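INTERNAL TRANSFER SHEET
From: sequence group
To: structure group
Subject: Transport permease protein

Please process the attached sequence and return the structure record in the designated field. Keep the field labels unchanged so the import script can parse them.
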Amino acid sequence: MTTNPRPPRANPVRLYVTEAQHEFLKLIRIPIFAVSTIALPVLFYALFGLAFGGGGDSGPVGATTYLLATYGTFGVIGAALFGFGVSVATERGQGWMRLKHVSPMPPQAYFVAKVAMSTTVAAMIVAALFTLGASLGGVRMSPTQWISLGLVLIIGALPFSAMGLAFGYLVGPNSAPAMVNLMYLPMAFASGLFIPIHQLPTVVQDFAPALPPYHFAQLALGTVSASEGGSPAVHALVLLAFTAVFLTVAAWGFRRDEGRTYG
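Return from structure group:
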């Protein structure tokens, strides 16, 4: 009498790594994602950051340095919102979530892969902006400031990944790109990511602290000695609070969405 051999057990680490690799390749091969998410902040910095260089009122640092921090913030937020928000909404509509549930892959691997993708794309945007700023923008900072700014920008993708995840579970696949853009661009403007916050109308300056990108931008500006107010600890706590709220909303949407898909 023979017994069937047991199927080999899947390596959990390999499952996580494979899912992350496929998530990154999937998004990077979508032309609209690469253009809108990676190229757009670099193009904006080249047009507005370099054009303002030496002539704009950007406080204690040069305009190209100030805008390097704010356009880096803008790019990282976009990668998190579109990588999470739009892709999760689209995959829900396509029924991918059901397939993921019945596969042997741990459910957490799906979300870990998206976080890995979001931070990897954020690192690519930061590297492109840093190269442009140092070569054509004349940005000169100490090695500590370059490293601090890069780390703050990449780590800052996490709260906005949570925001994107919440949106991915709240909106349908057809409306997700429009809804994310409708929130993303006005929020970026009102937080001083396009124009230094002190140059915006007073009413916008007063409203900006209610927006999470404002606190992210102030943390980034703080690394280049250009923060426009507030304690770094307060900015970090506010971002943590927003992250908790967004994760709570996403968890509610996940439970509500189990067994359902949207067309």
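Handover comment: The chain has a mean pLDDT of 84. The CA atoms of residues 106 and 170 lie 23 Å apart.
Transfer complete.
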